[in-house]
């Protein structure tokens, strides 16, 4: 019980309060009508007004009603089962019947019988045949007592029925939990099977388990992530490095899952490395298809699993792409290696997304429109192909900034940060831009309130191709830039276009060097 909540004896429901109020008033009214000297003068005056309205012509019946209402309330609270969670039993919710209640029931029956008897005998004293009337009064009073006892017995029967139903719900819940545990244990064991179809079936069994058991979802996700973190065999590693992935092969990989499940002859002809590749693709799809809040034909909205953490540190991933609108609470991809089609477009990473030391091998990796409210860590990552962060959002607000770092990252080809938004000055120190770098229209939270000294850090950064920080030369960028110690390589064999932010120029050449792309001269960037 929380400190703010009242004691349990004060936790009444609306209908209980109404029943208690009516019972107390009726009992008091009956006592007042039966014995006016009991209550004080002001209260008796109020009851005299009610009596003048004809409400207390039969005081004994009013008294009986009040006693019966309070007795019903007592038993109702003793058998009450909370509506919020009927399957969760606690000692406070299902306490045994106390002996005080039994004693109270006996006293109540005796009191009601006595009151009825006294009232009926008073009525019988005015009858013509007093003896017969008194006998009939005694018989009626005993009948009232028996009826009261029957009502109490009926409530006890109802209590026994409720407890039986409650126990049945517990039994069914325990059975379902036991079946889920058995399925989980069996699937975990099958994940280590040497045959690919068995491992694939285990993955789909775990997916169905998580779909119908909300509390098991993160556990299942952790198991699938752990499977993907298992080091790949040398055969699979060679296959990935030699494989030239195309977009039409992604569909083929998905189709092959059906072949493996059915154990067709065509599937058995695949090499062990290729079969393991299909199992891994299926595991990736299980992770990704439940992350999107936007339903479609392939990923219905009711299949969304909220608040999921993904830990794929060191995993080797092929054709890893998140559906549109995917949401991940905690994302850990450090030292992972991506092959094939890779896309995180329009995904949302609620907390810090870690991609440090990641190697992106695809021809293009897309983070277009992705959102990083908790910041992003791409330190020492390597992009073999193009990297696109167009319209990506890093951080949340200036009042709650989140840092994003690309320190030490290598961009082998184009790096596109056009119209990207940062809530805090990003860190691009010691980065190598071997391809074109586009930071035009990048903004700092789209706000006129910029923290003092909160600039994008490009210290000791190398630029080896076209660079664009603004649309036109001499224009002031939308985000403050610090290029201290940075250098640019000017290729003498090709013409390049370099648009630096206002206030920075290229110093005279400092070194002549031959690179893979041809010979040229290094220039240092200095403040104007």
From TrEMBL:
Key word Transmembrane present: yes
Transmembrane segments: 57-76, 97-117, 137-156
Keyword vocabulary terms for this entry: Membrane, Transmembrane, Transmembrane helix
Superkingdom of origin: Bacteria
InterPro entries: 5peptide_repeat (IPR001646)
Descriptive protein name: Pentapeptide repeat-containing protein
Source organism per UniProt: Saccharopolyspora aridisoli
Lineage of producing organism: Bacteria, Bacillati, Actinomycetota, Actinomycetes, Pseudonocardiales
């Amino acid at each position: 019980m929380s400190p703010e909540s009242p004691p349990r004896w004060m936790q009444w429901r609306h209908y209980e309060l109404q029943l208690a109020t009516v019972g107390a008033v009726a009992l008091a009214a009956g006592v007042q009508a039966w014995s006016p000297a009991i209550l004080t003068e002001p209260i008796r005056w109020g009851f005299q007004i009610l009596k003048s309205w004809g409400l207390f012509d039969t005081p004994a019946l009013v008294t009986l009603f009040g006693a019966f209402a309070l007795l019903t309330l007592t038993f109702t609270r003793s058998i009450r089962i909370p509506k919020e969670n009927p399957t969760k039993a606690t000692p406070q919710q299902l306490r045994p019947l106390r002996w005080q209640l039994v004693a109270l029931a006996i006293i109540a029956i005796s009191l009601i019988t006595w009151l009825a008897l006294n009232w009926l005998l008073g009525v019988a004293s005015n009858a013509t045949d007093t003896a017969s009337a008194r006998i009939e009064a005694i018989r009626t009073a005993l009948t009232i007592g028996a009826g009261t006892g029957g009502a109490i017995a009926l409530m006890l029967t109802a209590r026994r029925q409720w407890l039986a139903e409650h126990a049945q719900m517990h039994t069914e819940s325990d059975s379902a939990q036991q079946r889920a545990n058995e399925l989980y244990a069996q699937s975990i064991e099958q994940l280590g099977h040497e045959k690919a179809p068995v491992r694939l079936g285990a993955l789909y069994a775990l997916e169905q388990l998580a779909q119908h058991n909300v509390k098991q979802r993160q556990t299942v996700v952790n198991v699938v992530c752990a499977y993907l973190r298992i080091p790949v065999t040398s055969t699979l590693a060679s296959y990935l490095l030699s494989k030239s992935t195309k977009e039409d092969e992604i569909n083929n990989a998905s189709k092959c899952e059906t072949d493996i499940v059915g154990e067709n002859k065509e599937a058995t002809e695949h090499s062990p490395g290729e079969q393991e590749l299909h199992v891994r693709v299926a595991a990736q799809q299980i992770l990704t298809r439940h992350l999107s809040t936007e339903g479609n034909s392939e990923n219905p909205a009711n299949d969304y699993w909220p608040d999921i953490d993904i830990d794929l540190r060191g995993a080797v991933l092929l054709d890893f792409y998140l559906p549109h609108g995917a949401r991940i609470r905690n994302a850990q991809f450090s030292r992972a290696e991506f092959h094939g089609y890779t896309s995180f477009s329009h995904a949302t990473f609620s907390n810090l997304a870690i991609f440090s030391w990641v190697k992106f091998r695809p021809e293009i990796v897309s983070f277009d429109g992705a959102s990083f409210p908790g910041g992003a860590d791409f330190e020492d990552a390597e992009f073999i192909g193009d990297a696109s962060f167009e319209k990506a959002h890093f951080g949340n607000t200036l009042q709650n900034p989140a840092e994003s770092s690309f320190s030490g990252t290598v961009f082998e080809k184009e790096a596109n940060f056009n119209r990207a938004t940062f809530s805090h000055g990003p860190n691009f120190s010691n980065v190598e831009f071997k391809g074109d770098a586009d930071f035009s229209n990048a903004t700092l939270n789209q706000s006129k309130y910029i923290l003092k000294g909160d600039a994008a850090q490009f210290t000791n950064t190398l630029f080896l191709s076209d660079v664009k920080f603004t649309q036109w030369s001499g224009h002031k960028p939308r985000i403050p830039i610090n290029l201290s110690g940075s250098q640019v390589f000017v290729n003498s064999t090709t013409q390049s276009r370099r648009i630096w932010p206002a206030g920075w120029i290229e110093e005279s050449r400092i070194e002549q060097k031959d690179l893979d792309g041809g010979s040229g001269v290094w220039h240092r960037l200095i403040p104007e």
